[in-house]
């Protein structure tokens, strides 16, 4: 994951709790089942989104797959995560296109817990129109019930908590 940590280093100071700077999945942030940290940063035409949460929030289990069915489920979840253009919606007028996605498989710890991290970079042709982002994460992963979100744009930063009833975050303008 090192290569993209470099590309998003402008996030490092902004999200001290999300583990971006640490490069480790479990030591940096809190591990709370149901809760997945969401990071959003806009700089120029670049929109960067990150999710970091317990693997159980995505998979329903938090250990190495024990059979073929669980292996298939893990592969399915990783594929859903790679498709950032489906997980996150933006205003059409912002003309955002997914440029890259990076998903790190669960890092199984000795304590029986594991985090899953995913990262996407979008390029937006009309950044002024990028006024909100909607997370479809709750629909895709019903095990996630809270998304504490940190948002950074050139206009400011904010922290909000998205829930299945409030899935859209307004960006500082
Ligand atoms: Zn856990």
Q: What would a concise description of this structure say?
A:
The chain has 173 residues and is α+β, with helices and mostly antiparallel strands.
Descriptive notes:
With 173 residues, the protein is an alpha+beta fold. The chain has one domain. It contains 5 helices and 9 strands, in the order αββαααββββαβββ. The chain has helices at residues 2-7, 55-59, 68-82, 84-87, 137-140, and strands at 37-43, 46-54, 88-89, 96-104, 115-124, 132-135, 147-153, 156-162, 168-170. It has a 6-stranded mixed sheet. Strands 3-6-9 form a 3-stranded antiparallel sheet. The chain is globular. The model is unreliable at 1-28 (pLDDT under 50). Residues 31, 33, 54, 56, 62, 113 line the site of zinc ion. Zinc ion binds at residues 31, 33, 54, 56, 62, 113.
Shape from CA axes?
globular
As a percent range, the share of strand residues is 25-35%
Query: What is the residue-mean pLDDT, rounded to a whole number?
Result: 87
Give the tally of β-strands.
Answer: 9
Low-confidence stretches: 1-28
Secondary-structure-based class equals alpha+beta
Helix content: 10-25%
Q: Using the CA coordinates, give the radius of gyration.
A: 15 Å
**Major beta sheet summary:** 6 strands, mixed
């Amino acid at each position: 994951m090192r290569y993209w940590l470099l590309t998003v280093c402008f996030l490092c100071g902004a999200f001290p709790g999300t583990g971006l700077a640490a490069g480790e999945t479990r030591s940096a942030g809190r591990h709370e089942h149901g809760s997945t940290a969401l990071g959003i940063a806009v700089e120029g035409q670049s929109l960067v989104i990150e999710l970091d949460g317990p693997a159980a929030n995505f998979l329903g289990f938090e250990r190495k797959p024990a059979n073929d069915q669980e292996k298939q489920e893990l592969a399915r979840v990783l594929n859903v995560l790679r498709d950032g253009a489906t997980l996150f919606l933006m205003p059409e007028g912002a003309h955002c296109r997914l440029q890259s996605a990076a998903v790190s498989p669960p890092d199984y710890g000795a304590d029986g817990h594991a985090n899953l991290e995913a990262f996407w970079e979008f390029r937006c042709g009309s950044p002024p129109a990028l006024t909100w982002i909607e997370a479809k994460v709750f629909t895709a992963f019903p095990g996630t019930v809270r998304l504490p979100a940190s948002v950074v744009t050139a206009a400011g930063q904010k922290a909000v908590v998205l829930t299945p009833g409030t899935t859209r975050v307004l960006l500082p303008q």
